[in-house]
Structures are given as structure tokens and as C-alpha cells.
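HOLO CASE FILE
Compound: zinc ion
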Amino acid sequence: MRDEWALRKGRSSYVLWTDEMIRRMQAYPERTAAEIAAELRVTPSAVRHARQRYGRFSTGTDGLCIVCDARPVFDTSAQAKKWRLCKGCYLAERKRRLEEEAESNRIRQAAHRRQKLDGDV
Ligand SMILES: [Zn+2]
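Model generated. C-alpha cells follow.
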């Protein structure tokens, strides 16, 4: 469905993406479509279509961590692989999420207590 849409709607900017182009596009998920377009000599809208089509990030397992961009993805953990993080960044991210969760629970409980108190008055 999406491919059809891209073909019909983006005909003027439709380019055939080679594996090499896709790889180079996905190597820089943080870059804008315009920056990648300039490097690959295609239009920014072609890059946007390609990102919709092939994904902004590489799905390969040999990629580098998207946070530190230095160490390989910790691919023995399904979750780390999904987040595309190396072991260190994955552990830091998990810790951060747990802390955020604890903090939001604390806030929710505090709000709940306050509500109860207001109700008592
Ligand atoms: Zn990392």
C-alpha cells in the first residue's frame, strides 16, 4: 500500500534506491532529509519517501549504537536491539526509564493523596 502511494504521489521525485544509497541514508538518522539529499544527489522529498519506505534506521544487526555511535548494538538483548543501543547505553537507558517511572508514580501518588485530603475537607 505504502509503496503504491509513494509511486503514485511522488512520481516526480521517485528515484530507485540502491542498497548502497539506503545504507548511506540510514547511516545518518540524525541528519535532515536535505543534508542527505545533497550527499546522495537526490531531492529532499525523495529522501523523505525513502525514509518512509525503508526506515530511518538501518535494520541490520551490525550497526552502531544510535546514542554513542561508537560501540556496536547489544544484539543479544532483544530490547537493546529494538532500541538500537550498545550495552552501556542500553543499561543507562533502562535505569533512566525506571527512574522516570518511579518519579511519575511518586507524583501520581502524591496527587492522589492530595485529592483524598481535599475530599476529606
Ligand atoms: Zn552506546
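CASE NOTES: The longest helix spans residues 87-120. The mean pLDDT is 84.
CLOSED: yes
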